[in-house]
Amino acid sequence: MLLRRPTVQAGVRARKERKELDMTEFKAVANPIDSAGSTKQLLSNLFYGWGYNFYRKENQLRADDLLVRAKVSEMLAAARAHLADLERAWRREHLPEPTREHPYADAAAVASAQQMRRAQQLIEALELRVRTVGVPEMDRINQRHRNERDTLQQLVGVDGELVLAAEGFQRCRAGAA
């Protein structure tokens, strides 16, 4: 005589039936993951297994921060590239090739070109810092000791200031073009 062990699915089904009997007054909300394909279900289980919840406000703020910083970084890179184009055009116009009559370039023109180059380097350094700065991590140990939502909302405020500064760069770029 063969004894069959209950499968995992049968155990899950039995637990679901017990829950449904115990929680009859609660409204049942259909989980869209249940109707998803097997790959989406696996991905969802991996996220939930690591404690990630898509619907928590903290996770939305963290994702929004990353998106805003990527956009600001892109805007700063465009501003730096535009400044590099302006510098090249300025060098062509104001720093001609040395000749016998003028073997050395004008000191004021060289100083201006160096100043433009330093501005590009500063913008590039700012872009790198914006792109690589860390986001507050979601660790469960420190989560009870700090209010993560307030920290992330402050971060969103700083992101807004970054966007305004990057837009200022773009307005200068549009005015110079």
TrEMBL record:
Keywords: Coiled coil. Residues 69-129 form a coiled coil. It comes from mine drainage metagenome. This is Uncharacterized protein.
